[in-house]
Amino acid sequence: MKNTIGAVLLAAASFVALSSCTKDPLKDMTEDESRIYITNHDSTANFNSYKTYSIVDSVSLIDNNRFAGKEATSWDVAVIAAVQNALNARGFVKVDRTQSPNLGINISRIYSTTTSVVDLYDYWGGYGGYYDPYYWGYSGYGYYFPSTYGVYQSTEGALSIDVLDLKDASSSGNTIKGVWNGLVRGAGIFRSSNVQSQVQALFDQSPYLKTSR
């Protein structure tokens, strides 16, 4: 499958580590500025050939590449509604999954946790001479610290929306082809107040994702 990838980069994603005291050049960025919007679609897909869709009633949880269940929190319900409204505005008609929809819509919350080690001495650049050596009776002495290592974990979250071709699924063997994916990464993506703007940004980036009734 040939894919085309479009990405709107509002700013580089923040690197989360020791957030209360690190040298973070992006710490003054707003949540909006930190978010990245990525869309990917099958360039051979004729979206005008799809007329109907069905959407999940809960959101999948993916934790470190493993399925961890499904939820329908207020945030999840808001995302489902926002995606549904966006598809309706593009000409698609929602039907029940028992009515042979042309497209299936999956929504996932993705969490990825990484563990890293940092040399704290190198990170802070050394404290030699920062403090008054005379207080301790060692005039002319400097300070040094041996290497000290810290271990920290950071968790990144993402919103993923998948559009699947169900119309041609029966003729494609045992696989269902994805024809569009939208991914949002960055700070504040799981705030309910950001749901509408995030979904809209993905669809604004994908003008081809539409059909005629």
UniProtKB/TrEMBL annotation:
Protein name: DUF4136 domain-containing protein
Annotated organism of origin: Flavisolibacter ginsenosidimutans
Gene3D superfamilies recorded: 3.30.160.670
Domain of life: Bacteria
UniProt keyword rRNA processing, yes or no: no
Coiled-coil region(s): none
Domain DUF4136 stretches: 39-208
UniProt entry keywords in alphabetical sequence: Signal
Keyword Methyltransferase: no
Residues annotated as signal peptide: 1-19
Classification via InterPro entries: DUF4136 (IPR025411)
